[in-house]
Amino acid sequence: MLNKVPEVTIWFWVIKILCTTVGESFADWINMKLGVGLVNTAWIFTAVFVVVLAIQLRLKRYVPFPYWLTVVVVSVTGTLYTDILTDQLNVPLWISSAVFSVLLAVVFGVWWLRERTLSIHSVTTLPRESFYWLAVLVTFALGTATGDWTLELTGWSPGASVLLPLGLIAAITALWKSGANPVLSFWLAYILTRPLGANIGDWLASPKVAQPGEPTGLALGTFTTSLIFLGLILATVVYLTVTRSDVTETYEAAHAAHATGDPRKERVALAGFGLLAVATTGLLVWAHGQPHVGPAPEADNTSAVQMAPGQAVKKFPPAKVSALRTLASTSLKDARSGNAKGAHAAAQSLRDLWDADQASLQPLDNTGWTSIDAQMDQVLKTFGIDHSNPPMSPAQQEKELNALLTDMG
């Protein structure tokens, strides 16, 4: 059977980073447009992933379009899984990173025990390809968690944080050139492309002017960023389809030389990986200890300037304001009728949509966005969403929801 994975050339890494960037920006945009919340969006993309993966698994050889379509979908799906843990279940990022690290180790362990190889040059059977895609899914979730955790620890902007994974990938490449195990080098670099692409996506989509503690970027928005990178992916896939420069039609034996290196050089390179890990840890500890702007305290949200009814959203697109009002009204209606579960679910969807809209709304009117954001936070606090307090009384929920609806006009 022919190999099902493209040859690892510069094109492989270019399109992988493009797919990873789309995973970050497109996940945010589609969540905003669907307006059904993170969990339902994740279910939708899980179903899409199952479909495209089934098509990919049925193929007998590597074909660029279905392969990279699967990578794009799995990048969005893996991102959503981590976002659910962080935003919906309030799982700390260090715990998510640890859990996904262990899960990836388990996947690799079972894969090795069954197949005795983790090389992508040997993805020639259905079991091996199944392990491959499971590993890819976990690497996207792990890369999302570790990338976000790095930003949380350091307070770096997305633009500055691009340099860390980029530098690590360059160091891994140098160690690979010096004789490091190619399989280990590949998977380490593969994981790091996730935070690299995500930071690039955040940097392009984030507003140029932001509140303290918020990232700054080029203000392209999640839709424009997604459109640009999807177009680049399509163009690259068309090129690869025509030129077949990433196609390998050889069996595992043809790549045996890649798996048989110099044991002494591999041990030296392994020590280099260890030193790289220690240096990275030291850098993150140092950055965490430096004065930097973190997320604004909750109490600061209440001090935002008060604006006349409807004034805060005057510069926002009416369709987006209407979608927010609909969710707030649904939550209010359920709270009044005693449907606590429905009110809470609508409030969560309201939060998800508001967060997803930030990149496009805040640049339009930073003052108005800040005013609404402060009242939005008061609403979420009454439901115990993103706050440590238990849900408040329905009367308090109604009060804050009414205030939010008044602010939105």
TrEMBL record:
**Region described as Disordered: spans on this chain:** 388-409
Bilayer-spanning residue ranges = 34-55, 67-85, 91-111, 131-150, 156-176, 183-205, 217-242, 268-287
Tagged with keyword NAD: no
Pfam families attached here? DUF347
Q: Which InterPro entries match?
A: DUF347
The answer to keyword Membrane applying to this record is yes
**Keywords carried by this UniProt record:** Membrane, Transmembrane, Transmembrane helix
What domain of life is recorded for the organism? Answer: Bacteria
Q: What is this protein called?
A: Membrane-anchored protein
What is the organism of origin for this protein? Streptomyces rhizosphaericus
